[in-house]
Amino acid sequence: MHQLGSRSSDGTPRMKIGYVGGGSQGWAHTLINDLAQCEDVAGTVALYDVDYEAAAANAKLGNRVVDRADADGDWTFEAVRELDDALSDADFVVCSIQDPPEETFVHDIDLPKRYGIHQPVADTVGPGGTLRAMRAIPQYREIAATVRERCPDAWVINYTNPMTVCTRTLYEEFPEIKAIGLCHEVFQLQELFAEIAERHLEEADDVNREEIHVNVKGINHFTWIDEARWRGRDLYRFLDDELEARKPLNDFEPGAMADASYWVTNYRVAFDLYDRFGALPAAGDRHLVEFVPWYLDLDDPEELHRWGIRFTPSSARRPDEGPSQTERYLSGEDAFELSESGEELVDIVRALLGLEPVETHLNYPNEGQMADLPEGAVVETNALLTGDDVSPLTAGSLPDEVRSMVETHVTNQKTLVEAGFDGDLDRAFRAFLNDPLVTIDRAAAAALFTDLVEREREYLGAWNLEKSEVLSS
Amino acid sequence: MHQLGSRSSDGTPRMKIGYVGGGSQGWAHTLINDLAQCEDVAGTVALYDVDYEAAAANAKLGNRVVDRADADGDWTFEAVRELDDALSDADFVVCSIQDPPEETFVHDIDLPKRYGIHQPVADTVGPGGTLRAMRAIPQYREIAATVRERCPDAWVINYTNPMTVCTRTLYEEFPEIKAIGLCHEVFQLQELFAEIAERHLEEADDVNREEIHVNVKGINHFTWIDEARWRGRDLYRFLDDELEARKPLNDFEPGAMADASYWVTNYRVAFDLYDRFGALPAAGDRHLVEFVPWYLDLDDPEELHRWGIRFTPSSARRPDEGPSQTERYLSGEDAFELSESGEELVDIVRALLGLEPVETHLNYPNEGQMADLPEGAVVETNALLTGDDVSPLTAGSLPDEVRSMVETHVTNQKTLVEAGFDGDLDRAFRAFLNDPLVTIDRAAAAALFTDLVEREREYLGAWNLEKSEVLSS
Amino acid sequence: MHQLGSRSSDGTPRMKIGYVGGGSQGWAHTLINDLAQCEDVAGTVALYDVDYEAAAANAKLGNRVVDRADADGDWTFEAVRELDDALSDADFVVCSIQDPPEETFVHDIDLPKRYGIHQPVADTVGPGGTLRAMRAIPQYREIAATVRERCPDAWVINYTNPMTVCTRTLYEEFPEIKAIGLCHEVFQLQELFAEIAERHLEEADDVNREEIHVNVKGINHFTWIDEARWRGRDLYRFLDDELEARKPLNDFEPGAMADASYWVTNYRVAFDLYDRFGALPAAGDRHLVEFVPWYLDLDDPEELHRWGIRFTPSSARRPDEGPSQTERYLSGEDAFELSESGEELVDIVRALLGLEPVETHLNYPNEGQMADLPEGAVVETNALLTGDDVSPLTAGSLPDEVRSMVETHVTNQKTLVEAGFDGDLDRAFRAFLNDPLVTIDRAAAAALFTDLVEREREYLGAWNLEKSEVLSS
Amino acid sequence: MHQLGSRSSDGTPRMKIGYVGGGSQGWAHTLINDLAQCEDVAGTVALYDVDYEAAAANAKLGNRVVDRADADGDWTFEAVRELDDALSDADFVVCSIQDPPEETFVHDIDLPKRYGIHQPVADTVGPGGTLRAMRAIPQYREIAATVRERCPDAWVINYTNPMTVCTRTLYEEFPEIKAIGLCHEVFQLQELFAEIAERHLEEADDVNREEIHVNVKGINHFTWIDEARWRGRDLYRFLDDELEARKPLNDFEPGAMADASYWVTNYRVAFDLYDRFGALPAAGDRHLVEFVPWYLDLDDPEELHRWGIRFTPSSARRPDEGPSQTERYLSGEDAFELSESGEELVDIVRALLGLEPVETHLNYPNEGQMADLPEGAVVETNALLTGDDVSPLTAGSLPDEVRSMVETHVTNQKTLVEAGFDGDLDRAFRAFLNDPLVTIDRAAAAALFTDLVEREREYLGAWNLEKSEVLSS
After folding, report:
1. Where is the Glycosyl hydrolase family 4 C-terminal domain (chains A, B, C, D) (predicted)?
2. Peptide bond before A162: cis, by omega within 30 degrees of 0?
3. Residue B401: which pLDDT band, with cuts at 50, 70 and 90?
4. Can you name the residues that pair with C219 across neighbouring β-strands?
5. How high is the pLDDT of residue A73?
6. So what's the pLDDT on residue A26?
7. Which of B274, D55, D64, D204 lies in disulfide reach of D49, CB 3.0 to 4.6 Å?
């Protein structure tokens, strides 16, 4: 039996975090920020990245930050050259990885456009999400195998998309793994409800999103809610009024979003789905439109603006030129200010160490929390985290049509994972064809799929490309 | 306890058949033909139709035919003016009804085209099938209620489309009903396999479709098979060769089908789906393309010809001018020749009377025959019919993606029936929106739905049109 | 929408608790004790009891206690003569009722003994538990119907046995009810694990039972656990050593328990079941032996002592003579000292009011928390209580044989509730026969059942005794 | 693809039957009798038996019989020394094996009696059935493995008890096996209904059991029916009258059955269960009493006579002294007369060869035919057999309590098979303890189990006896 964390002489739990993707420019900085402010846990963070230099730079940055006077945390950062070393005896493993966008993500976005398939995000479902899943499955098999070998009792916390497929792969490779997938998407919805509370309840003033209790259910980026409360007060009942106030829902002008942030969401699609199905999606509109066939059959991409969202162009996915964020921090060009990140990772670590229970939503294999979806599917629901334990909360059922839509994606995700374990490209193509965005003719679909695979061939080495009938046809 | 049929003094079972839709120009003639040649069962056929004159003409025709020298059957036909009279003490009830096409079917076909939705058949799913379901549900509630009242132990045999929704409605209204739904669609596939047997097996010569055993599973018009045998010889193994021989599958020219029969099918779509999913659909291509989003997203309707099928225009659904077929028979303009109809109705009646067991495929509520579809859904599988008993045969599971596609329609059918019982038009609109052919924008979908409902308002009297938000929006 | 509790001018939530069984000598006193010490919630408690005088005495006692200087609570107690009045506009309903033991419980215990069936408790399953269920079902239907009428949004908290049947009846009568069932039984097991923690973990010292996290699953009094942790440290791994240390398990002498408390449990049966099935029961041995056939097939009742438990004789169930406890408090014969009761009721009320979340185990309809038991069965698992919300935590599966044993009782409970709603005594007899303790011949079982029904006839007025074949045979 | 059977020049299908247990004195003779009269199929029967001499004698007998003038069949019998040889290229495999009763069955019956557990048959469930299962599982693994190796497309027909465990083992070892289990038990019930038909229906005269259609459901020897028809006439409705006519059900005198056949059944237990649960068991009373706890808790074994049945003593299970039946046939001491055996084996072989479909009840893995029992459990229901295909008919659900009783045994059977594959004696002991007949104390149960295992040690070589805690305790 592994004991999660050890104790230093003063009783502070000490632990090792293995960080896969530790050269990142976003997540790694948040983690440094949060650990620098974490007093009651201490330890080491081993940063592993295929780009070792980036990981080394982050290690340098991390150590510099925690040594500052305004930092309370007792943490050491080090870069390692092998995944094995990062995970060896780790108590927690954090995964946040990404293939070089210019060789992958960019094609995921651009190639489908040639076939008339536009995707605002392209990282979860649709042609882009499917390819990303195909690249991720072998990588996550390796992570899971290394966990089994090096730190079988560690908690693995995944942030990488496609969230559901990555998390499911971990469990498929190593069924005893203790892994959860975390995503911020629902936070925004809680903020929306915080506003609703302030608007409709006299006693509600300056409501924090964390005070909003929503009953999350579904799969990542296609989650739904049917309950929302603030201090026990029902907020869900105000949705009909909110819906009316927003109508007509798609009244933005084409072009109106041309200068908007790529991440903007106005919850117009979410309310449209609420109006159709009686349950409110809990993800941003940019994701939602990728899961159903109704919004993206566009003659002109600018039409999407009507719904108050826009496409993220592939150019925005290419790395910026010039020094990286880490480099700018290290050079002093940018100041690394400690702030409240809003991220829950440290809270979750503390809960799993037995310090303070946390309730949050997370991605986890279905063992009854969503009784109307298949057992073993990775679903997103609320869960309670206590000492070395994650217990999902039962979420109840979805409206029939919603469940049916979700189930289509669950089936595709299962197919992709199974195909990935067999290296069976033709089986993956089945999931590709069955994706709601792929309404094009089969021959065209095969051509698009082939284009994508050929262009990203380098990242699909674990697949049996030679035996594929689709590729050779 | 009702005793199915009585016995005349010579031991011949005597029974009453109540025929709902007895004024028909097709089915009624087949029934007359088959009964005229049925020696070992006798009785009365009560013909009911909203068009009483048509039923009376068929009764006249029926009596004239069975009196002929070449007829062996001892049957009497009579037209009745009330459904109650047709069903009172009936042993069997046959249903084959249709609303006046010029007021319904024609709109089901033509209105969606204006919104870019083309349907070759439009009687099962898609916008047309949805409206047809909405008209049929109240009618089938009435039939089931009358059965409960007048002949609760009778066997009800349905031929009307949408088959699944009609049959499900019967059970929803009167759960103890003994009803089955019959459809010919699979017969053609058996003929295809008869050809395959002759082509590939030396010992197979002049194979009859009835000798072909196929394991049917799915829902009406979207059935699938994964086993086919002739006298225990596996035929399914020849499908890969058959597929190769047909490739490229969609190589017909646009326009090539301009003069073809409306009903032609070349099994190109079926083989395309076999190629995608590894199971072979058992329905004709005209139906198949309506269940999935890949084939009907056309700029020009003639493009459908590539797959060797064509659209049935609404003009072909309007009744012919001039005397009806019955009238032509009665006037002697056409001769009524006795023939082998290929229909199974009389065999089925004989089986249920305990004379000779029959195995065939039929539509029946799921009680385990399709363990991976919801209980209570009406599914199409093989069944064994013996004296007063129908027992479905377990069909095993479908490939994951196929099951998921089928399940989408099962959900929509359930929604439609529930909506119909509540008269809830907005709930029906949910199923409409969720149909794979409805990939259009929600506002457009609402406009189309409203158009259809307004145009067919007269046939939707049982729905609560006033309370509908869709209509009023 | 009902708003749970109102707020007084100083912001303290104010509420009404309706107490069904408010004349009790135990539970009512605990409630008075706990409310007297509850500062941040205030309100009224309406005490209803078939024995109005007892309720009135408790009201007097309650008001006197909260007025004392050492009491912080702002609560008013009043006795009411009608159930309607107790529940009218209540925010919470507490149920803790009991039929007069001398006319019911005493027979539940004594009559089966004549047929060789001995039960240590006789309030949950077995012949006694079955009769208790039969009496309770009509009573709980009435409570649920009154809740529907008078306070449909109230939270109903049940303490009455048979817990599972009572709670299931509430939901069967009023499916939208918000009801939970609470039982202490698992607390003792947590105490056992607190000891185990202290014994095996160096850092564990003076561990409180509330710090022990156990994963509860099963049905009330036949719950099981397969995880136990203290601050994230696994305690379950010590069970094999604990088992060995206790062996031989049934080495007490017959007669050894003659002077023991009726409630004593030495966890010998629990460990015996752990040894058999690999999961540890979470209820006391006195209950456990009633759910399985192996321990109570005794020639001499004293043999039960081998397992370190004893029978509670019916004499102990008769009310004491002389003044009641309430009377002794009111007369000053006994002093009512405020103490820490260990009861969770006030914590639960506070959680449901949105003050502070609570995790505890409770009885609730299965919606996935026990995926291998039927949906809708009332099961006992952990749950998280937040503002106006109860969310069960998924508990995972039970070992096959354990699930099968539990399922037998779930089936009987379902049968009893359905029988109770129909007043169908013969159907109830089926559950009686199917109880693992009823291994006697069917004729003997019918005689015992008849004896019990006749003796408790007055309390079975809602059952259709006239139509029963068992009774008349 | 294997082609079932080949064709001789005259078109007669020719095949090889491998007979495991071919030295038997009962089944082998029936097979010789039936094949001698089978004209339209021909071939070879390879007889394998651990007692080679017995197989050789049967081969001699078989060849002698088919050469007689009154025999039409064209069959050759040969004895083989290895299982491999018997199964090599077989088209059908018939299994009917038994361990030497004096070393196994005799103990299965006698040892439990010392602990107060009496079993009339002891070959299916209870202590005796459990031990028999434990011996059979390794043997059936070997058969399945040999089928996989030597004749993977053959149909395997099992007659050995415990039927359910043997058949389940075949599928567990080789999931693609095509195996069915056949048992006569239901035939007797059909005969009972033939009598009922004659008694209650005027037109029914000299009814043959094969004309009776019953809907079989459950597990072997604990099957139930809820429908019975003769030529479509409902017979089930007469059961209540039949029940009344038989009451009191257990009115035989103790001792009354002392001279009765060991196999006598008066359907008193079956009607008692029908009276309790509303469904009629389809097995003989001798089997039924072993599945439930109510009938065998006897002070004096003769009390069982009350129900019109008796125990088969172990002496009746020992082989007779003197020449075997085969030897008596060969010596001419007894004449081998061709007769109508009533066995269905040859009909089933013909159906699977594609000659003539057969409907019968058989044991087969659950794929939906019993939707309320676990998938994969071997259940007994009706099935349709056609060319190279077995399709179970959906049987519908069982009454709740009956399903629960059946499910207990299904769980035990699953446990036993899993334990057998692991060689885990302690896991097998869990099933032993959980058997409804084992109501004795756990220590006594362990002692009995140990006694049985020790006595039959020679036949339990595949189990890991050394590691067992039960044995060593």
Report:
1. 216-438
2. yes
3. very high
4. C222
5. 85
6. 86
7. D55
Provide the phi-psi class of A271: left if phi over 0, else alpha when psi is between -120 and 50, else beta: alpha
Which residues of A lie inside 8 Å of C (Cβ-Cβ)?
1, 3-4, 7, 203, 213, 215, 227, 229-234, 237, 352-354, 357, 359, 367-371, 375, 382, 384, 386-389, 391-397
ipTM above 0.90, yes or no: yes
- Which residues of A are part of the catalytic machinery? 184
Low-confidence ranges of chain D (pLDDT < 70): 1-5, 7-9
At C42-87, the pLDDT tens digits run 999 999 999 999 999 999 999 999 999 999 889 999 999 999 999 9
The pLDDT value recorded for residue C2 is 46
Would you call D240 exposed, middle or buried from its count of C-beta atoms within 10 A (0-12, 13-18, 19+)? exposed
For CA atoms B63, B64, B67, B69, the dihedral sign is negative
Contact A232/C389, CB-based, under 8 Å?
yes
Q: Which two tokens stand for residue D9?
A: 């020049």
Q: Residue B2 has what pLDDT?
A: 46
Q: How far apart are CA B28 and CA B329, in angstroms?
A: 13
The question of whether B184 is a catalytic residue gets the answer yes
Say if residues C159 and C96 touch (Cβ distance below 8 Å): yes
Two structure tokens written together for C357: 């979340």
pLDDT-based confidence at residue A22 (cuts at 50, 70, 90) = very high
Could you give the CA distance from residue B83 to residue B81 in angstroms, rounded to a whole number? 7
Q: Are D378 and D363 in contact (CB under 8 A)?
A: yes
The predicted pLDDT at position C12 comes to 79
Asked if B86 and B23 touch (Cβ cutoff 8 Å), the reply is no
What are the E-state strand segments in A164-206?
Answer: 178-181
Residue of D139, D133, D21 lying closest to D80 (CA atoms): D21
On the CB side of A301, how many CA atoms lie within 13 Å of its CA? 17
Give me the DSSP letters along D319-332. PPSSS-HHHHHHHT
Q: Do C389 and A203 touch (CB under 8 A)?
A: no
Q: Give the distance from CA D42 to its chain's centroid.
A: 26
> Which residues of chain C does D250 touch, with a Cβ-Cβ cutoff of 8 Å?
443
The answer to whether residues B357 and D359 touch, using CB atoms and an 8 Å cutoff, is yes
Return d(Cα D197, Cα C259) in angstroms, integer: 65
Indicate the SS3 state at residue C74: strand
* pLDDT tens track for A311-352: 999 999 998 888 999 999 999 999 999 999 888 999 999 999
Question: What sign for the dihedral angle of Cα D171, D173, D178, D183?
Answer: negative
C-alpha D411/C-alpha C401 separation (Å) is 6
Instruction: State whether D434 and C295 contact (CB < 8 Å).
Output: no
CA dihedral for A260, A262, A267, A269, sign (positive or negative): positive
Query: Which among D413, D442, D469, D472 is the top mutation candidate for probing chain C, defined by the most C β-carbons within 10 Å of its own β-carbon?
Result: D442
| Euclidean distance between CA atoms A33 and A29, whole angstroms | 6
Check C230 against A387: CB less than 8 A apart. yes
Q: With both helix axes pointing from N to C terminus, report the angle between A105-114 and A126-150 in degrees, rounded to the nearest 10.
A: 150
pLDDT at residue C3, rounded to an integer: 57
Place of tokens 């089933």: D348
Residue B214: phi and psi, rounded to 5, are -120, 145
pLDDT of residue A4: 64
Query: How large a percentage of chain B has pLDDT more than 90?
Result: 87
CA dist D415 and D417 (Å) reads 6
Contact B368 D394 (CB under 8 A): yes
| Tokens encoding A411 | 């089936």
The distance in angstroms from the start CA to the end CA of chain A is 52
Q: Residue C326 pLDDT more than 80?
A: yes
Could you tell me the two tokens for B52?
């009483």
Measured between alpha carbons, how far is residue D309 from residues D190, D225, D251, D277, D303 in Å?
19, 21, 12, 21, 10
